[in-house]
């Protein structure tokens, strides 16, 4: 099943478009109020002391602005930025090559830092703490470690899985920024900003329509905006209204709460074939013709976050809200039936 539209990850072509939409300075960065305030203190104090700031770790789901913030940190410090990622650091030597060529005050961004290989990680500990690496020369009993000083730098790490970071690594960051999903009002601001950069006139009600389907994620909001713009250009002489936005997103099968075809297939199977569950993950996956991992990693996190699906020890269960979302009446014993008022339908 295709899923580029509401995937939180960027694909190849999208990176260039995204680069054009990235806020460059902290003042342009929307939402994440607390992170922004904390970070501006860290940066300001470093500026005043004339020293490289503490290492910064950013954790949060894909598409929330981690890479953007890393670039902003370098820009705010007027420091050069070096980019790499955990998977690219397979050997300690890969990291040593980067560290040994850093300029003083340079910002080193390691994306997906939880995927770094172990030997590189150990080298990083020492580098973060003492601005030193030990280069091991030779093998076996004759091997010697040659200490090498490196310029004071600031490490900015990003991870979607903070829980996977070993404690010794996490502890070496002076500041950890936890990025949350954006609320609808913040996403509207992201959309207005992007619309302006793309030269699209975006009325407020159209922004609202796109924002509520964007799964709390700026990357998805920007992507939906581009699809809505395409639709408006071809079908509506470029005039973007709330109705046009809704029609476009319905055409792309992104519903009123941001669920796509896969999400609805999972819920549909859970309700239609298993009476709302509980049912095991693999059984559910077979029912929708997908790999269990796809269901678990791609569809479930958002369904759980929306309160439509629950993971219980006995299996996956649809909540009362899921029945309502699909236009059905929840059975009296539905999971969470007695809880809060039902959300609006699609
Ligand atoms: N706070 C924000 N304000 C405006 N645009 C944002 C914000 N956060 C993210 N974006 C946009 O969303 C896209 C994805 O952001 P990115 O930093 O690449 O996310 P991540 O690295 O967390 O996956 C970028 O194009 C960026 O312009
Ligand atoms: Mg990123």
Each distinct ligand: adenosine-5'-diphosphate, magnesium ion
CATH topology term of the largest domain? Rossmann fold
Separation, N- and C-terminal Cα atoms: 21 Å
Specify the overall morphology: globular
Task: Give the overall pLDDT as a whole number.
Answer: 92
Number of domains: 3
- CATH class of the largest domain reads Alpha Beta
Would you identify the CATH H-level superfamily of the largest domain?
Answer: P-loop containing nucleotide triphosphate hydrolases
Highlighted features:
single chain, 346 residues, alpha/beta, Rossmann fold, Helicase, Ruva Protein, domain 3, Arc Repressor Mutant, subunit A, 3 domains, 5-stranded parallel beta sheet, two-stranded antiparallel sheet, 9 strands, binds adenosine-5'-diphosphate, binds magnesium ion, helicase
